[in-house]
Amino acid sequence: MTELAIHAADRDIADELSEQVRSAYHDRTPLRIVAGNTRAFYGRPVEGTELNVAAHSGIVSYDPIELVVTVRAGTRLSALNAALAEKHQMLPFEPPIFGDASTIGGAVATGMSGPRRPWAGAARDFVLGTRVITQEGKLLRFGGEVMKNVAGYDLSRMMAGAQGTLGVLADISFKVLPIPTASHSLRLEMGLQDALAKLSELGRQPLPITAAAWHAGELFLRLEGGESSVKATKERLGGEALSADFWQQLRDQQHGFFSLNEGQALWRLSLPPHTPALELAVDESDIFYDWGGSQRWVKTALPADTLRDECQKAGGHATCYTPHAQGGAESPFTPLNAVVEKYHRNLKAELDAHGIFNPGRLYAAF
Fold first, then answer.
1. 147 and 187 inside one domain
2. Whether residue 229 sits in one domain with residue 166
3. pLDDT digits over 206-227, tens only?
4. Which of 47, 73, 64 is nearest to 5 (CA)?
5. Partners of 127 in the beta sheet?
6. Quick one: which of 43, 114, 211, 279 is 20 to 30 A from 358 by CA?
7. Is 193 exposed, middle or buried (CB count within 10 Å of its CB: 0-12, 13-18, 19+)?
8. Total domains present in the chain
9. Which has the minimum average pLDDT: 140-144, 216-220, 312-316, 321-325?
10. What region holds the FAD-binding PCMH-type domain (predicted)?
């Protein structure tokens, strides 16, 4: 594989972490898995002995020709992005960065993806393989070249969004993609109903759109691809040029919209494509439509049940991004139905029999 200059501390502490897990498993001691800790707001608080993965960092291998990179979980996202950019490549799922300490392990564990998600895919779609520290403190490799799973589970992809409740991510292999040759962002003045209709129309056409959002009377679009395709679409749509920084600010929740008023909590509504506006008692200015309308950020003091009931009617779900201690919902994630909860409990029991990995992070009961 082609070697690349390392942009982060290159240190492998997998054996030390495995020993800590092994001891916790023996003593049945709960562990709170942390690294950059910039995503601590996402999910329920965890009580347990800290298992810090931050020092387990560095790029293990990178082959730009094969579009594959393997990186340790504690590696900072900024370092990995810089390394990929040197070869004009990127992580296609555009993971949010919530501070300089944000790590790639945290990005995968929370399963978060940026504005490109509907057009490129989610974090789990680009995970080729992992090295995971299991409950017994064993360091096992899944996916990738080995293509081996345990008990029929695709564990590598299951780690995306599991919030460390199934094991400790040590190394992760990703499929990466070239940075598009051309890029142009634009804004169009347009009301909400017209914007949703426009997005539905554009979605049926082979256009180089890689991000689409609406807020406060403006539709925002990002065009990426070949020079001729981007130029032709730009001329067709018109509008006013938009700084590319807009998408980074939206991705990382640095846009002014994300400032909360007293009593408000931030909610993320996940909905099927082309879902019309929901019947919520929320001012239009307090809703930001992302992912072409499939992801909606809502600032509100409405009860969790009200938001979740409306989302459920539309075939979606709602997640609270504001911690309970700061006025958010006690249960940030939508409660599981009986069937899904049964499978979740069975999976947790098999991969974390003593409940040592981030207990209560997703749901209070496990």
1. no
2. no
3. 999 999 999 999 999 999 999 9
4. 64
5. 174
6. 114
7. exposed
8. 3
9. 140-144
10. 1-179
| pLDDT reported for residue 94 | 97
Residue matched to tokens 């040197």: 86
- Same domain, residue pair 199 and 266: no
Q: How far is CA 123 from CA 84, 96, 135, 144, 193, in A?
A: 16, 11, 24, 15, 30
Pairwise CA distance, residues 137 & 25, whole Å: 8
Alpha carbons within 13 A on the beta-carbon side of 313: 11
**Which residue shows structure tokens 């995971």?**
132
Q: Is the pLDDT of residue 146 over 90?
A: no
Q: In DSSP terms, which residues pair with 182 in a beta bridge?
A: 225
At position 267, the amino acid (one-letter code) is W
Q: At which residue do the structure tokens 């959002």 appear?
A: 213
Structural domain including 141 reads: 14-178
Distance CA 310, CA 308 (A): 5
Model's pTM, two decimal places? 0.93
Q: Cα-flanking dihedrals φ and ψ of residue 49, to 5°?
A: -70, 135
| Per-residue tokens: 264 | 């408000």
Phi-psi group of 33: left, alpha or beta (phi > 0 → left; psi -120 to 50 → alpha; rest → beta): beta
In a domain, 283, yes or no: yes
The arithmetic mean of pLDDT across residues 1-20, rounded, is 74
- CATH of residue 85's domain is 3.30.465.10
* Residue position matching structure tokens 């991510």: 169
Pairing of the two strands 177-178 and 182-189: unpaired
Confidence of residue 4 (pLDDT cuts 50, 70, 90): very low
Burial class of residue 116, CB neighbours in 10 A (0-12, 13-18, 19+): buried
Q: What is the CATH number of the domain that holds 234?
A: 3.30.70
